[in-house]
Input
Amino acid sequence: MAKQFWTQERKQIVDLIDVTRTYGLDDDAVANLEAGRPAFWSTCGNSNDFDGLLFAAINRYASIEAGQEEYAGIFARRGMDPTDEIHLDYLIPLNTAAVTMLMLAYQSVGTWRTPEELAKRATSRGWPSFPARGRLAPVEAPALVAAE
Output
């Protein structure tokens, strides 16, 4: 039996595209939502090439760290670092697993965002509410190093 194309998750992504005016590769976000993997959208817009690439890679791998790793060289050649906080600020987590992953990514650069604050990025744009805390998908925590 063929898989249904127009799922609830796809409709919600299309609605989010209309609100954020950010067009991207929605297939990876939809697949991640359906599988319970971290799924993101972005506010970076089409004119922000580097963050658009990073956003697409993060959804492709369902991993912020893997997306950052893929584009580290491209960012470095332009004097940028894909792990910088500014790039995380564009991400909109669409489920609890994404909230957890994004919270850990902020912690790895030495800043803090609450799960509720991160979940609000989506719900304030009309995304259906989801628990910001609770039964979280397993996410590998980055190794934190104490400041000297």
About this structure: Residues 8-123 form one domain. Residues 135-145 have pLDDT under 50 and may be disordered. The beta strands are 40-42, 91-93.
